[in-house]
Design goal:
Length: about 140
């Protein structure tokens, strides 16, 4: 079982974020990225990280309440991994990989093992988008 380091996680997440930003016009689910894309972005990041050996990923989410909109992110080896947090505030880093919650909305209410079934009815579109995004990744990060 391979453990990815903080530096490796950040570099991989930055590369995925860049690939999404450069290719969002070609996708079905990421046209408004990062707005409203936290679930799908988390799934893509998680699937790519799993291919790289990070199998202990947990999908986390917080539901809408009076203080925060709903949000989703990943946790791995006690790291919070979030490539869409800046959708709420542009002063937030666009890629978060941290052992400490940077934002209050990272106080999870729900967690579950990372599986593709989380995508629900969007699974086919997500698979198509993932091919585009993963295909555009730097060769050192593609599986």
């Amino acid at each position: 079982m391979k453990r990815l380091t903080l530096t490796q996680l950040k570099n991989i997440c930055l590369s995925i974020r860049e690939s999404i930003e450069l290719n969002k016009s070609k996708t079905n689910l990421f046209k408004e990225f990062p707005q409203g894309c936290c679930r799908d972005a988390s799934l893509i990041v998680g699937i790519i990280l799993k291919k790289m050996g990070a199998i202990e990923l947990v999908y986390c989410r917080r539901d809408f309440d009076l203080h925060y909109k709903s949000h989703a992110w990943l946790e791995y080896n006690s790291f919070i991994i979030d490539i869409t947090a800046d959708q709420f505030d542009t002063t937030i880093p666009n890629v978060i990989v941290s052992r400490t919650p940077i934002m209050p909305f990272h106080q999870k209410q729900h967690e579950e093992p990372l599986t593709f079934s989380i995508a629900g009815m969007d699974a086919i579109d997500l698979l198509k988008d993932m091919e585009i995004i993963e295909g555009a990744l730097s060769p050192k990060f593609s599986s």
